[in-house]
Write a structure and sequence with these properties.
Layout (H helix, E strand, L loop, with lengths): L4 H16 L5 H9 L20 E4 L2 E3 L2 H11 L6 E5 L5 H8 L3 E6 L2 H13 L6 E4 L12 E6 L8 H5 L1 E11 L4 E8 L5 E9 L10
Parallel strand pairs: 3-4, 3-6, 4-5, 6-7
Antiparallel strand pairs: 1-2, 7-8, 8-9
The structure holds S-adenosyl-L-homocysteine.
């Protein structure tokens, strides 16, 4: 698949529609305009790639809806060179958005098929996360901690303690929490012990799975 002027036109429209839906961070909108989402999908979805919808990516998983990607990314308030941990690499689209914002991205995926596919795809597209890992994101990546921010892209039944522990003071953790429907939750670490919590509306994600293979 190629990236054409037609795709660019569709991306511009998508970014404009996300702005109408309330995304205000121009850097996030710019990343949406730059990243060829159709290349993260099977070719049969090419015509739909710039609709604001999730799509299947194999292994029973989905690429998140662009609005959700933009909403979560905006909450992270990414600064250049921020060290960010992503749980749930999936298609790699969210990873690509974070890399486009200048972040050093550490990402974990527990589905081997997706891990392998995305580990090949991203470098082919010239997108370089700092580290891609196959494993259980519930545990985070203690060897690389602490992180400026952490983003979880699957619905978590609760907020894993390991992730809270791996956040820098002042750092932001964005995680959808809940079983059937998830509440987008932002935790800001105030000091060693205290986190400020914000709940920012309902979303639907595939589940964050713990200790299952
Ligand atoms: N960020 C992805 C979203 C993929 S859906 C994208 O833009 O495409 C969520 C992903 O989280 C799935 O690929 C799923 O396999 C993965 N996942 C679920 N539980 C996980 C866990 N405990 N550790 C790491 N990844 C997990």
């Amino acid at each position: 698949m190629k990236d054409t002027a037609k795709h660019q036109g569709l991306r511009n429209k998508l970014a404009a529609s996300l702005r109408e839906k309330g995304i205000t961070d121009e850097r996030v909108l710019d990343a949406i305009r730059r990243i060829p989402r159709h290349l993260f999908l099977e070719s049969s979805f090419e015509d739909y790639a710039y609709q604001d919808k999730p799509f299947p990516i194999g292994a029973g998983q989905t690429i998140s809806q662009p609005y959700t990607v933009a909403f979560q990314t905006q909450l992270l308030e990414v600064k250049k060179d921020d060290k960010i941990l992503e749980i749930g690499t999936g298609s790699g689209y969210q990873t690509a958005v974070l890399v486009a914002l200048g972040a050093k991205v550490y990402t974990i995926e527990r589905q081997n098929e997706l891990f392998k596919k995305t580990s090949l795809l991203l470098p082919k597209m010239g997108i370089k996360p700092k580290h891609m890992s196959f494993g259980d994101g519930y545990k985070g990546l203690p060897n690389y901690a602490p992180f400026d921010s952490i983003i979880v892209t699957a619905g978590a039944p609760d907020i894993p303690n390991a992730l809270m522990a791996q956040l820098k003071i002042g750092g932001r953790l964005v995680i959808p929490v809940g079983e059937d429907v998830q509440v987008m939750t932002l935790l800001i670490r105030k000091n060693e012990k205290q986190f400020e919590k914000h709940e920012l509306g309902n979303f639907r994600f595939v589940p964050l799975l713990e200790n299952k293979n």
